[in-house]
Amino acid sequence: MNILALETSTPHASLVLESGNVLLFETDWETARNHDTSIFPALRDALNVLGQGVALDLVLVGAGPGSYGGVRVALAAAEGIALVHGARVVALNSWLSLAWGEDECCIVSDARRGGWAFGHFRHGMLEDELRVLSRQDVQAALVAYSAGPSLSIESADSLREKGMTVDYAGLSPTASGLVAAWHGLSAARQQELAAKPAEPIYVRPPHITQMGKRPWEVNFPSERQIN
Questions:
Q1: Cα(70)–Cα(140) distance, rounded to whole angstroms?
Q2: Residue 55: burial class (beta carbons within 10 Å; 0-12, 13-18, 19+)
Q3: SS3 category, 123
Q4: Is the distance from CB of 45 to CB of 63 less than 8 angstroms?
Q5: What's the whole-model pTM score?
Q6: Residue-wise pLDDT tens digits, 118-175
Q7: Which of 2, 10, 36, 103 is 20 to 30 A from 147 in CA distance terms?
Protein backbone atom coordinates (compact mmCIF):
# COMPACT_ATOMS: atom_id res chain seq x y z
CA MET A 1 0.00 0.00 0.00
CA ASN A 2 1.24 3.48 -0.91
CA ILE A 3 0.53 5.97 1.87
CA LEU A 4 1.04 9.73 1.95
CA ALA A 5 0.70 11.45 5.35
CA LEU A 6 0.41 15.17 6.07
CA GLU A 7 0.63 16.82 9.48
CA THR A 8 0.24 20.61 9.56
CA SER A 9 -1.67 21.27 12.78
CA THR A 10 1.29 23.11 14.36
CA PRO A 11 4.05 25.41 13.02
CA HIS A 12 6.27 22.32 12.77
CA ALA A 13 4.77 20.60 9.71
CA SER A 14 5.79 17.27 8.20
CA LEU A 15 5.10 14.88 5.33
CA VAL A 16 5.82 11.18 4.86
CA LEU A 17 5.55 8.88 1.85
CA GLU A 18 5.54 5.15 2.47
CA SER A 19 5.22 2.16 0.15
CA GLY A 20 4.73 -1.36 1.47
CA ASN A 21 5.89 -0.30 4.98
CA VAL A 22 9.10 1.10 3.43
CA LEU A 23 9.83 4.80 3.93
CA LEU A 24 10.35 6.46 0.54
CA PHE A 25 10.36 10.12 1.49
CA GLU A 26 10.16 12.24 4.63
CA THR A 27 10.48 15.96 5.22
CA ASP A 28 9.54 18.59 7.77
CA TRP A 29 9.54 22.35 7.82
CA GLU A 30 8.74 25.31 10.03
CA THR A 31 5.84 27.55 9.11
CA ALA A 32 3.97 30.36 10.81
CA ARG A 33 0.75 31.25 8.97
CA ASN A 34 1.71 30.27 5.43
CA HIS A 35 0.77 26.59 5.27
CA ASP A 36 -0.96 27.33 1.98
CA THR A 37 2.36 27.99 0.23
CA SER A 38 4.83 25.87 2.17
CA ILE A 39 2.96 22.57 1.80
CA PHE A 40 3.14 22.38 -1.99
CA PRO A 41 6.91 22.09 -2.50
CA ALA A 42 6.92 19.17 -0.06
CA LEU A 43 4.03 17.51 -1.91
CA ARG A 44 5.77 18.00 -5.25
CA ASP A 45 8.98 16.39 -4.00
CA ALA A 46 7.09 13.43 -2.50
CA LEU A 47 5.08 12.75 -5.64
CA ASN A 48 8.23 12.98 -7.75
CA VAL A 49 9.73 10.24 -5.60
CA LEU A 50 6.60 8.14 -6.02
CA GLY A 51 6.99 8.43 -9.78
CA GLN A 52 4.62 8.75 -12.69
CA GLY A 53 2.11 5.99 -13.16
CA VAL A 54 2.28 4.90 -9.52
CA ALA A 55 -0.89 5.62 -7.56
CA LEU A 56 -1.41 6.40 -3.92
CA ASP A 57 -3.82 4.17 -2.02
CA LEU A 58 -4.29 6.28 1.10
CA VAL A 59 -3.74 9.86 2.21
CA LEU A 60 -3.63 10.40 5.97
CA VAL A 61 -4.14 13.91 7.34
CA GLY A 62 -3.64 15.18 10.85
CA ALA A 63 -7.01 16.86 11.42
CA GLY A 64 -6.14 18.73 14.62
CA PRO A 65 -6.71 20.03 17.15
CA GLY A 66 -4.40 22.82 16.13
CA SER A 67 -3.97 25.42 13.43
CA TYR A 68 -7.31 26.21 11.77
CA GLY A 69 -5.67 27.23 8.49
CA GLY A 70 -2.99 24.53 8.52
CA VAL A 71 -5.46 21.66 8.92
CA ARG A 72 -7.85 23.00 6.26
CA VAL A 73 -5.06 23.48 3.72
CA ALA A 74 -3.77 19.94 4.27
CA LEU A 75 -7.25 18.45 3.91
CA ALA A 76 -7.92 20.41 0.72
CA ALA A 77 -4.58 19.34 -0.76
CA ALA A 78 -5.24 15.73 0.26
CA GLU A 79 -8.66 15.72 -1.41
CA GLY A 80 -7.17 17.06 -4.63
CA ILE A 81 -4.38 14.47 -4.68
CA ALA A 82 -6.76 11.66 -3.77
CA LEU A 83 -9.07 12.62 -6.63
CA VAL A 84 -6.22 12.23 -9.13
CA HIS A 85 -4.92 8.99 -7.62
CA GLY A 86 -8.23 7.39 -6.72
CA ALA A 87 -7.06 7.18 -3.11
CA ARG A 88 -8.92 7.36 0.19
CA VAL A 89 -8.49 10.35 2.50
CA VAL A 90 -8.58 9.59 6.23
CA ALA A 91 -8.51 12.32 8.87
CA LEU A 92 -6.84 11.30 12.12
CA ASN A 93 -6.65 13.12 15.43
CA SER A 94 -3.21 14.76 15.28
CA TRP A 95 -2.58 13.87 18.91
CA LEU A 96 -2.64 10.16 18.03
CA SER A 97 0.90 10.60 16.75
CA LEU A 98 1.95 11.69 20.26
CA ALA A 99 -0.12 9.19 22.22
CA TRP A 100 0.69 6.12 20.12
CA GLY A 101 3.04 3.76 21.96
CA GLU A 102 1.87 4.91 25.40
CA ASP A 103 -0.37 2.58 27.40
CA GLU A 104 -2.08 5.66 28.76
CA CYS A 105 -1.43 9.39 28.69
CA CYS A 106 -3.10 12.78 28.74
CA ILE A 107 -2.41 15.67 26.37
CA VAL A 108 -3.12 19.37 26.89
CA SER A 109 -2.78 22.46 24.73
CA ASP A 110 -3.83 26.09 24.82
CA ALA A 111 -7.24 26.43 23.10
CA ARG A 112 -7.09 30.23 23.37
CA ARG A 113 -9.76 32.54 24.79
CA GLY A 114 -9.01 31.24 28.29
CA GLY A 115 -9.63 27.57 27.49
CA TRP A 116 -7.37 24.52 27.44
CA ALA A 117 -7.91 21.39 25.33
CA PHE A 118 -7.56 18.17 27.30
CA GLY A 119 -7.50 14.63 25.92
CA HIS A 120 -7.14 11.28 27.68
CA PHE A 121 -5.67 8.46 25.59
CA ARG A 122 -5.54 4.76 26.33
CA HIS A 123 -3.58 2.31 24.14
CA GLY A 124 -3.19 5.00 21.51
CA MET A 125 -6.90 5.81 21.27
CA LEU A 126 -8.83 8.80 22.56
CA GLU A 127 -11.07 8.04 25.51
CA ASP A 128 -14.37 9.92 25.38
CA GLU A 129 -14.11 13.35 23.69
CA LEU A 130 -11.62 16.18 23.69
CA ARG A 131 -12.67 18.69 26.32
CA VAL A 132 -12.05 22.40 26.73
CA LEU A 133 -11.37 23.22 30.38
CA SER A 134 -10.56 26.37 32.27
CA ARG A 135 -6.94 26.91 33.27
CA GLN A 136 -7.79 26.10 36.88
CA ASP A 137 -9.55 22.87 35.91
CA VAL A 138 -6.71 21.72 33.68
CA GLN A 139 -4.20 22.51 36.43
CA ALA A 140 -6.20 20.31 38.79
CA ALA A 141 -6.55 17.56 36.17
CA LEU A 142 -2.77 17.47 35.60
CA VAL A 143 -2.07 17.30 39.33
CA ALA A 144 -4.58 14.48 39.78
CA TYR A 145 -3.52 12.48 36.72
CA SER A 146 -1.18 9.60 37.56
CA ALA A 147 -2.04 6.79 35.10
CA GLY A 148 0.69 7.75 32.63
CA PRO A 149 2.75 10.64 31.29
CA SER A 150 1.26 14.06 30.62
CA LEU A 151 2.17 15.67 27.28
CA SER A 152 1.76 19.08 25.68
CA ILE A 153 2.59 20.87 22.45
CA GLU A 154 3.10 24.05 24.49
CA SER A 155 6.62 24.95 25.61
CA ALA A 156 7.71 24.21 29.17
CA ASP A 157 8.27 27.93 29.79
CA SER A 158 4.79 28.83 28.56
CA LEU A 159 3.21 26.18 30.76
CA ARG A 160 5.25 27.23 33.75
CA GLU A 161 4.04 30.82 33.39
CA LYS A 162 0.49 29.54 33.67
CA GLY A 163 1.21 27.36 36.69
CA MET A 164 1.23 24.04 34.82
CA THR A 165 3.74 21.22 34.65
CA VAL A 166 3.76 18.22 32.32
CA ASP A 167 6.16 15.34 31.86
CA TYR A 168 6.95 16.18 28.23
CA ALA A 169 6.45 19.66 26.75
CA GLY A 170 7.12 21.29 23.41
CA LEU A 171 6.04 18.26 21.38
CA SER A 172 4.79 18.37 17.79
CA PRO A 173 2.53 15.85 16.06
CA THR A 174 4.29 14.27 13.08
CA ALA A 175 3.32 12.63 9.82
CA SER A 176 5.47 9.61 10.69
CA GLY A 177 3.57 9.31 13.98
CA LEU A 178 0.27 9.31 12.09
CA VAL A 179 1.48 6.46 9.87
CA ALA A 180 2.65 4.47 12.90
CA ALA A 181 -0.70 5.02 14.62
CA TRP A 182 -2.58 3.94 11.50
CA HIS A 183 -0.60 0.70 11.22
CA GLY A 184 -1.32 -0.03 14.88
CA LEU A 185 -5.09 0.17 14.46
CA SER A 186 -7.19 -2.91 13.90
CA ALA A 187 -8.61 -3.47 10.42
CA ALA A 188 -12.10 -2.80 11.79
CA ARG A 189 -11.03 0.51 13.29
CA GLN A 190 -9.27 1.51 10.04
CA GLN A 191 -12.45 0.83 8.09
CA GLU A 192 -14.49 2.81 10.60
CA LEU A 193 -12.23 5.84 10.27
CA ALA A 194 -12.06 5.54 6.48
CA ALA A 195 -15.87 5.64 6.30
CA LYS A 196 -16.05 9.00 8.09
CA PRO A 197 -15.86 12.35 6.26
CA ALA A 198 -12.35 13.83 6.33
CA GLU A 199 -13.05 16.92 8.43
CA PRO A 200 -11.04 19.17 10.77
CA ILE A 201 -11.26 18.56 14.51
CA TYR A 202 -12.35 21.68 16.34
CA VAL A 203 -12.37 21.67 20.13
CA ARG A 204 -14.58 24.76 20.05
CA PRO A 205 -16.42 26.81 17.41
CA PRO A 206 -14.25 29.25 15.42
CA HIS A 207 -13.99 32.72 16.93
CA ILE A 208 -15.61 35.34 14.70
CA THR A 209 -14.58 38.92 15.27
CA GLN A 210 -17.48 41.36 15.29
CA MET A 211 -17.05 44.55 13.29
CA GLY A 212 -16.98 47.79 15.24
CA LYS A 213 -19.55 49.49 12.99
CA ARG A 214 -22.02 48.12 10.51
CA PRO A 215 -21.37 49.28 6.92
CA TRP A 216 -24.40 51.61 6.91
CA GLU A 217 -23.21 53.27 10.13
CA VAL A 218 -19.92 54.47 8.65
CA ASN A 219 -19.82 58.22 8.05
CA PHE A 220 -18.31 58.80 4.61
CA PRO A 221 -16.92 62.24 3.73
CA SER A 222 -19.15 64.49 1.63
CA GLU A 223 -18.25 65.56 -1.92
CA ARG A 224 -17.26 68.99 -0.58
CA GLN A 225 -14.85 67.39 1.89
CA ILE A 226 -13.36 65.19 -0.85
CA ASN A 227 -12.75 68.13 -3.13
A1: 31
A2: exposed
A3: coil
A4: no
A5: 0.86
A6: 999 998 889 988 999 999 999 999 999 999 999 999 999 999 999 999 999 999 999 9
A7: 10
